[in-house]
């Protein structure tokens, strides 16, 4: 079963004012939008042509030039200068700083630190014994005496003052404050009610009447006009696009018939046969003759190089004589097949 489709919106609920505004508005907007849409489509086509033929190759060339001027030199500087220098500096830092620092820490600072820690531990143990056996009992006795003295001098008088003086006075003040608060609350309630009804009669009711009987109808009318203008612009833009595409196709067909097809016919019927004839009658014989001439020239150059090499060797021999031949050296190891079996008919492993 086909999915249930919602029914199209009905236009019966639209008033006569909406219909009366829509038709002339769409006609006027269509007449105004068609030239704008045709100019827009022409600019889009020209922009695409400029992008594909000028901007994209120019961008690629600028990208390659930027890489050649900025990226590749920095890559070469990083790879062949900074990295080796950094490795050399790291090695020098390891040899000159880290290794001596490790040796100093291991053989000097660590033993000194252990000795200082041992001394500090002993001193701490002594101070802990003094604190536990001497200072803490004295502190407890003094603390108890101070607490008893503070209790007698401050806590007992403060408690008596709070119980018999401050608490009754505070209760009386709280009762007075509650009564004053109730009086102020009732006064504020009366004033608020009076202000509420005054503002309602003077401002709210007139504003409500203005909104209900003036602004709301005008807003609905303006909303209808704005909606119809937007709908007319969209409808006109779509129709103008179709008209622009039809005009573009017609101009393209006319351009093809007037320019492209004659040029294609001339290329196919005239230039191609003439080019084939020129290639068969002129270019191929010229290429064969050039190959023969090149072969002869290469042979002549090879003979001339051999002659020059022989003459140079003769001149060297006349000036410096024959080069000394290396003297034969008596090698201790046997030569030829006898070297494998040490001159016997058996191998070294089966030799008696």
From TrEMBL:
Residues 342-352 have a biased composition (Polar residues). Keywords: Membrane, Transmembrane, Transmembrane helix. The chain crosses the membrane at residues 27-49, 61-81, 88-109, 115-134, 146-167, 187-211. The keyword Transmembrane helix applies. It comes from the Bacteria. Residues 324-352 are annotated as: Disordered. This is Uncharacterized protein.
